Amino acid sequence: CRRWRSACSNSHAGWIAELSRQSEVDERWMREITRRHILPSQLTLMTTVTVRSLVEYPRNRNVERVFEFFGRLPSLRQLEAGDAKNALHLLQNPQLKTLTCWEEPDILAASPVSSTLTELDIACSLAKTHFLCQMPELSRMLLSLDRDPAPVAGTGAHEFPALTQLTLSADRNHAISELFSSIRMPRLHTLSLRLSTLYEADVRAIAT
Q1: Which whole number is the average pLDDT over 126-133?
Q2: Which of 30, 65, 141, 151 has the highest local Cβ count within 10 Å?
């Protein structure tokens, strides 16, 4: 018992495995990580992270410290980031493939992980959707279009090069037709629509 207590205290025996098994990350998880001086490289079993709450990290520098930690997890493949507070640039995970976030598309497109992500769940304005076209490996997307009075890019001005599956919801009339008129999706074969009303103009835009 004495040896075990010493191992827990000095070598974090059991804590690394326990913290690796917790996919939902909150303030308590971060406190244990900090208190025990556990390094990201030690959490090799952690492949999925869901950020539930970081209310004790309101300042940008503290949120950035958290995402910098996530960005060095060696096996991270799926991240539900919520409000990343402009910290996605700290993610350096080439193996990260699936992301759920509320970040602005232009900030996401400029982040290091944009070149390797294959699945994305995001809400954004119609006028900024074209930034997501800069993600070359993106094949599956759940896209929620927000209300946006700003004009979109010209007809066929952008293209999703690898997108094959799209689940789409919108809360503005004719947002669907504007999206399909301004962005090409040559490889799209599965489209799911979560809409209260589908207009004739939307059907025509999707068909073309």
Answers
A1: 92
A2: 141
Question: Any bridge partners for residue 160, and if so which?
Answer: none
Classify the phi-psi angles of 156: left when phi > 0, otherwise alpha if psi is within -120 to 50, otherwise beta. Answer: left
C-beta neighbour count of 84 within 10 angstroms: 25
Which residue has 């406190």 as its token pair?
A: 31
Res. 116: pLDDT tops 80? yes
pLDDT for position 195: 80
Residue indicated by tokens 């971060």: 30
Secondary element (H or E) of residue 68: helix 60-70
CA 71, 26, 105, 97 dihedral sign is positive
Helix H or strand E segment including 70: helix 60-70
Confidence bin at 147 (pLDDT 50/70/90): low
The number of beta carbons lying within 10 Å of the beta carbon of residue 34 is 11
Closest CA to 147 of 127, 122, 166, 168: 127
- pLDDT (mean) for 168-191: 87
Calculate helix-pair angle for 200-207, 175-182, nearest 10 degrees. 20
Letter for the amino acid at 17?
A
Please give the order of strands across the beta sheet that includes 48-51.
24-25, 48-51, 78-82, 98-101, 119-125, 140-146, 165-170, 190-194
| Residue 185 pLDDT > 50 | yes
